[in-house]
Specification:
Shape: elongated
Strand content: 25-35%
Oligomer: single chain
Largest sheet: 4 strands, mixed
Helix content: 10-25%
Structural class: alpha+beta
Strand order of the largest sheet: 2-1-4-3
Order of helices and strands: EEHEEHEEHHH
Distance between the termini: 24 Å
Length: 168
């Protein structure tokens, strides 16, 4: 489960990592905690670390510019908030709007979250051929929006003021 935002030394958002990875980076002095969960701490015999929400790398890491968010099955589920695009119930699978058997590809605009029942019912057909209607059209999230979705933040107003200026 990814739940910690990683910022570059220049405060640019880079990615999200697991809580465990975030704590390891902090303990190795490769990152510092910028924002922590209030009142939660990780304690051991010689360790007392706040549970990080946001960490910042100690050294600047050069990252190639990304215009687009990388497609992934997990990303599609997060983008669609784990809700089936056909019925609105909990989704655990990814469905291709234009099936791979008909030349469909793994892209943001051709994939939607789907419950297993609807995915099976649609099979190797388009929604029109199967007589099914999409509740919402697939879209391509920006890299910043994909990162916010992975953190479970739905609107930018939920972010701390100093972090609210993420690039769109």
């Amino acid at each position: 489960m990814r739940e910690t935002l990683v910022l570059n030394a220049s405060f640019e958002p880079l990615s999200t990592v697991s809580l465990r990875r975030a704590v390891v980076l902090v303990m190795q002095d490769k990152a510092v905690v910028e924002n922590a969960h209030p009142g939660l701490r990780i304690r051991a015999a010689s360790v007392d670390v706040p549970v990080p929400r946001v960490i910042r790398l100690s050294k600047y890491v050069r990252v190639p510019f990304r215009r687009r968010a990388s497609w992934s099955r997990r990303g599609v589920l997060v983008r669609d908030q784990h809700r089936c695009a056909y019925c609105g119930r909990r989704a655990a699978t990814v469905d291709h709007v234009v099936p791979r058997a008909q030349g469909g590809t793994d892209t943001w605009l051709n994939t939607v979250a789907s419950c297993a029942e609807d995915n099976h019912r649609k099979a190797d057909r388009t929604p029109e051929q199967a007589g099914m209607r999409l509740l919402r059209r697939p879209f391509e999230p920006t890299p910043a929006d994909a990162m916010l979705s992975a953190l479970g933040v739905s609107v930018r107003e939920e972010l701390p003021e100093w972090l609210g200026a993420l690039p769109a």
